[in-house]
Amino acid sequence: MKRIRIRWAGWRTAVLTLLLPAAAGAQHLLVPMDEAQSDHLKAYGLTFATLRMGLKAEWLLNYRGGSFLLPDVPELRREAALDGVSVEPMDDAGLAAVRTLIQDSNMDAIPLERAPRIAVYTPKEAAPWDDAVTLVLKYAGIPYTAIYDDEVEHGDLSKYDWLHLHHEDFTGQFNKFYLTYQGAPWFVSMVQASQAEAQKYGFANVPALKKDVAERIRQFVVNGGFLFAMCGATETLDLALAAHGVDIAQPFSDGTPMDPDADAKLDWAHALAFRGAHLETSPYINSMSDIDGHQVNDPARRQPLGTFTLFQFSAKFDPVASMLVQDHRSVINDFYGVTTSFTRATLKPGDVVLGFEEGTPWVKYIHGDYGKGTWTYYGGHDPEDPEHAIGNPPTDLSLHRNSPGYRLILNNVLFPAAKKKKLKT
Amino acid sequence: MVARLTSPMLMLLAAAAVALAPATMRAQSDTSAFYQGMNLEGAGHFRDAAVAYRRALAQPRDRVNALLGLERAYARVGWTDSLLPTVDSLVRLYPGEAAFRGVQLRAYTMLGRAADARLAFESWARRMPGQPDAYRAYARLLLQQGKAAEADSIIRMGGARLGGTTSLAMELAQSQAALGQWTASTLTWRTAVAGNPGLDQAAAFALAPAPATARDSIRNVLLRFPPEAGARRTLSELEMVWGAPAAAWAALRDLPADSATVIAWLDFAQRAEAGEQWALARNARVAALRWRPEPGLSIQAATDALNAGDASTALALLPDSGLDSARVAAYVLPVRAQALAQSGKPGEAQALVRAYARFLSPGELAPLQEAVAFGWVRRGELDSARVALHAAGPGADSSAAAGWVALYEGNLAGARAMLKNSSEVSPQLAEALGMVTRVEADSATDIGAAFLLLARLDSSGAAAAFTAMAPRHGDVGSAMLALAARIDEARHADSLAVAAWSQVVNNFPKSPEAAGAELAWARYLGRTGRTADAVTHLEHLILTYPGSALVPQARRELELARSAIPGTGPGGGRP
Q1: Given this model, what pLDDT does residue B342 score?
Q2: Which helix (H) or strand (E) holds A61?
């Protein structure tokens, strides 16, 4: 093992000077992603940092939990040491043995070439701790840009490769929290800000603004963007898209009753993931539709949490789906969100189910192609806070360094970095 | 949910039942099926207890208690479903009996039969339209299940039907807290605890999870004029849970003094003592003492003052009269002797100990003589200290106290031998032993003098002495500098502490103290807003000492400094 010398001043220059010789030495750092890894989440950050430095990496699908192969350069060793990420130096002979194993097994090596430009759709005043994705991006040290309605309306989505949505209600009904939180300061503030934003762009109300934002997000995917959504954003984005020509909002959000025939008028061809879902027409029931299997916010309908199982794909034939399910655990504890799961009956035929709960009519984690891009939906709010409620303290990910549920989020962050290979199917 | 009753609780229940029963009935009751059930349950024979309780249901007098016993016994053997036919029959026969209704509701809830529980609740509420019992019981069960929104709707329904939520205040407050409506919940709790002083613990328990952003609002509501004892007790409990003991005392101290307030002050003093918040405990006991002057309370207040390092107040608080000599020797003398010794009057302390020596056993005398000896040490009179120790008996010459005196004299060999065998467990002892065992010489007057300055509470002089001698003692210099840095940091001499940490890190990079010094330095930089410099040191520590036990702490500090993880700031999160 090379000894690392730290210079107090100008160490960055020293590191950059050392980059080329070390890389030319054909030494490698294996970042194991099985139980040997001490911090799975920061391991993604280390891989992302590799790409940001202009170096190449490889994702060894199904090899030791979906390990990463990085060049052995001092800067990466330093980052690994600082972050507590386990790395194993590997010479060419060792790597050759690994490649042989990969060749002969349900494994593959996917080159990772370019750090994707990441945007997270989130209100300006939201703390990173409000959203599991920003939480884990901050923890892993992966940079992102927070955007919201202003940026979307200005057409800024084209500046990014990857877009994340979390618990935004794209039907413009504020997740129906009006029923319970109409007097809460955060809720009042959120409603006022949204109404001002709608007026600013000439929309009659918040539902109209959010429908337009949803459509621009759809166009982002059509044009080749990678969309990753969690929690309520999954269900409401599709509802907003399907409702492009019909009023599905309750009077408390737009001042008019929803179209009594709204269900029949929904245009599911315009939606990404779902079809044939039925809207919840009562303004007093905190549920949007029958897409969500768990219905956490309606006590009479709420389903208990179980576990979900990741589907195992062929790494060589289905590399995209394989990347999205790389994990050191195949069975993961479920967690609630405004939308927790997706009923099988409402999935489009082309949807790829990545994670499902055995013996239930719902699935947890789905993926699909749309236009030139892709979308991935992951139900629930926070993989390490299964019963997350308003006011709960934020999750400290340093206490969940090996979270299998959070790994699925980070799989999605790295997946756009993969060099596109011609699929064999 | 059925709580498990322990044997003592069962005995208490039985005793209470016996005490309340008319004397003429006791003989009969003692042999009744109900008491058999109690005995069998207490012995852990739950199935047999259930049989006895079922028999006892035939006795009208025992019916309610027998059903409650049956509920507990069935729950223990997992047969709650067997309770339903019985309780349903009883509810049909006695529809106005709230206890039966409550058991029925709990049974359905325990069995996960939510729809039946709802029907049972509605039936109960219809049968007793003006009573809050059904709403309270059902709302509590829903809250226990984490169904706060549903509980809230039940309470609001009850409020509408009963003409207000006054009788449902506790449940309303709990549901509001569970929903994150902290201000509303606090207002409701304030009303609830005003009418029922016993609820302050429940209020504090419900409000304690409030995120930091909501706490000022909670404080404002509970501090609102006029001051109410229940609200202030609640706030005091909360402040203790939130880690602000001074604020906890502030919430109580200006309450009008009366017997209930004194109890609150004394309760606070006990909690403060448990947390070693001696000055606050002293303040609370002194406040109580003004209302209730008692010798025992005075001694406790003086002990708190002494533990807080406030010897003069301790002396002033100790009672001068009202106790006989034996009691003075047992309770007053230890505090007074130590207080005199700490306040620079070891001669008076010595005289006092001598005067009461005949009331003391050797085991009681020795610590007092040691206290006197340390009093002499504080005055720098080591010979007198030795004399005082010698008076404690033959063993004292080789005691840990004698070891300390040896250290102060620079006799490192003697100090090593005697301190090593000490049963005392203290950071000071670990510090001293850690240093003297690393010095090869058997004597070093400069080390002794520096420790003596520390013992005489001359922290500035001690830190300067340790810093000055560090270059003369080779590798042990890092320990001396690290100690000097800790002393300087504690007395807020930050520039001197930084200088000492810097010397340890740069001049003794391979010493055992280097990682700790760098972590302390980084923490200081972080505290004073120099985050970038703190990050540099934390990174250097992690990279330079990867095997150090301090690396996990350094990594956490680094994550906090980089805002990679949430700090102790506001919580939040929309679902």
Answers
A1: 87
A2: strand A57-61
Q: How confident is the model at residue A212 (pLDDT cuts 50, 70, 90)?
A: very high
Given an 8 Å threshold on Cβ–Cβ distance, is B575 in contact with A8? no
**In chain A, which residue's Cα lies nearest the Cα of B210?**
A391
Q: What angle do CA A418, A419, A424 make, to 5 degrees?
A: 105
B132 preceded by a cis bond (ω within 30 of 0): no
Q: Answer for the pair B298, B328: CB distance below 8 angstroms, yes or no.
A: no
Backbone angles phi, psi at A356, to 5 degrees: -145, 160
Reported as a single tens digit per residue, the pLDDT across B384-394 is 998 888 887 77
Strands A307-310 and A352-356: antiparallel
Q: How does A214-223 read in b/e, with b if 16+ C-beta sit within 10 Å?
A: bbbbbebbee
Neighbours of B197 (CB within 10 A): 14
Three-class SS state of A333: strand
With beta carbons under 8 A apart, name residues in chain A contacting B152.
Answer: 180
Print burial letters for A84-111: b (CB count within 10 Å at least 16), e (below 16).
bbbbeebeeeebeebbeebeeeebbbbe
Question: Within 13 Å and on the Cβ side, how many CA atoms surround A325?
Answer: 27
For A356-369, the pLDDT digits (tens) are 999 999 999 999 99
Rg of chain B, C-alpha, whole Å: 32
- Angle CA A291–A162–A266, to nearest 5: 30
Interface pTM, i.e. ipTM: 0.78
Interface test with B, best of A8, A125, A129, A287 (most B CBs within 10 A): A129
Q: Which residues of B touch A338 (CB under 8 A)?
A: 575
Distance CA B101, CA B106 (A): 9
- Is the pTM above the cut of 0.80? no
